[in-house]
């Protein structure tokens, strides 16, 4: 019975853990879906099931385009 109680408490702690809702990139904050420029790249803040991340969506120079 005590083991079951410990497992339930641990699961509640894991589920209560919040994932970030803002991308922090180069000292600035961006909301999910927000696009921004960084050097030669267009970046986007994306919400994913396991958290939030910054993804390169476009390269803005002809040299890097395929």
From TrEMBL:
Residues 1-16 form the signal peptide. It comes from the Eukaryota. The keyword Transcription does not apply. Keywords: Signal. This is Abnormal cell migration protein 18-like fibronectin type I domain-containing protein. InterPro entries: Mig18_Fn1. Residues 23-62 form the Abnormal cell migration protein 18-like fibronectin type I domain. The keyword Signal applies.
